[in-house]
Amino acid sequence: MRKVLVGSITIAVTVLLVQMQAQGRGGAAQAPAAATPVQDAVRYINPGSPTVPDNMVTSQPVPRLPDGKIDLTGPWVGGGSNGDIERDGGLKPGELPLLPWARELRDKRLSKDEPYTACLPMSVPRVNPYPWKFAMSYTSKGLSHIYVLHETGDAGAHRVVYMDGRKHPDDLIPSWWGHSIGRWEGDSLVIDTVGYNDKFWFDSRGTPHTEQLHTVEKWTRLNYGRIQNDFTLDDPGAFSKPVQLKFTGRLLRPDLKTGGGDLMEFICLEDNEYGAAAGLQGIGSGTGNK
Amino acid sequence: MRTKFGILVAALGLFSLTAPASAHHGFDTEYDATKKVKLTGTVTQVAWTNPHMRVYVDVTGADGKVTNWNLELTSPNSIRRAGWGPNDLKPGDKVVFEGFGGKVVESRGSLQSITKVGESKPLFVGGGPNAR
């Protein structure tokens, strides 16, 4: 048993470390290449959210809703980027077609200036690495809305996806989550969103966008344990051409009594002490017991 | 407690094959990787607060001065999902902890591991240069 435990510890910590380093969660705004190996490895006690492992993704059939559609509910962990949208979306370094001004802005942004550190929404697709789920809303007219609930969404912790056939209004006021309309393509849910503001960052690296941002997410449940987000990013204000990215979400492990299988409460402003250890003032609002 | 921790770690080994996605912000902005500390003290508060959980520990220096360390973890949801509960660490517990000091306020640290005095295994261990 001891050997099994030691082996389990080794596997778990090794995998966590490798993946932490590979994905750079919450890393500094500077390009990952600028970080030393030691800095890149240093993290908080951060076990992550337990998800269905690779060898169990086909252990159960893909569940379906009463109307026959594949159940996309989740909750899921993943399907977006946090540390670096270029890398996490499957591109090679430098392939993200940022316009020169946008690349320059990304390179000079500092982690301490992230809107997210002040508990503002991370928006699409950055929030997806944190637990989230689709919530279908049925009325007498059928599926009229899908709400996307984000555990770490903070202000505006849900997105509304209109499924009733409406179009995007032509007089949108730019907002953190934009205006989303959805449709089905077979068993895939396609979400088309415009009307974003330009305030959130795509990643902690500082990748910017403009109010011309238009995103298309095509969500496909690959099997019991995985969901894929084929993500089209089009923003002529900051990118020279549309770009296609791909992210994978993992099903939150449903059989844990410690919050497994569902979203939990998260109130970012409760005690946000961000910056205090570095002597920074006016970012977080909390002070702890000091 | 050890049995519970063993189950937790085994569960992590078998099931938690995903990258954590809970760090609210970067390490480098606030903490100094060169300020590695390993200290012994007494827990004064275990704060299951958002966005990040914190453990406060009184540490008595060689000069007799007591410093209350404010140690940051990740979100309480992540810690809870990993199996750590409110009874695992309480005020009054004597602990050995490892972490990194704050860039400016050194006693605001990033917690890497924490172990009750007299026990051989940490309650939890985070990723770090010396992570096991």
Count of DSSP E strands of chain B? 6
* Radius of gyration of chain A, taken over Cα atoms and rounded to an integer in Å: 20 Å
Question: Given the helix and strand composition of chain B, which structural class is it?
Answer: alpha+beta
Query: Could you say which structural class the secondary elements and strand pairing of chain A correspond to?
Result: alpha+beta
General shape of chain A = globular
How are strands sequenced across the largest beta sheet of chain B? Answer: 1-2-3-5-4
Multimeric state of these chains? Answer: heterodimer
Total helices of chain B: the number is: 2
Low-confidence region ranges of chain A? 1-43
CATH class placement of chain B: Mainly Beta
The secondary-structure element order of chain B is HEEEHEEE
Instruction: Fill in the CATH topology of chain B.
Output: OB fold (Dihydrolipoamide Acetyltransferase, E2P)
| Total of domains of chain A | 1
Would you mind describing this structure in some detail?
The complex is a heterodimer of chains A (290) and B (132). Chain A is built from four helices and nine strands; from the N terminus they run H-H-E-H-H-E-E-E-E-E-E-E-E. Chain A has helices at residues 2-23, 37-41, 85-88, 100-108, and strands at residues 76-78, 132-139, 142-150, 158-162, 179-185, 188-194, 214-221, 226-234, 243-251. Chain A is globular and about 50 Å long. The termini of chain A are far apart. Mean pLDDT of chain A is 81; it is low at 1-43. In chain B, 15% of the residues lie in helices and 39% in strands.
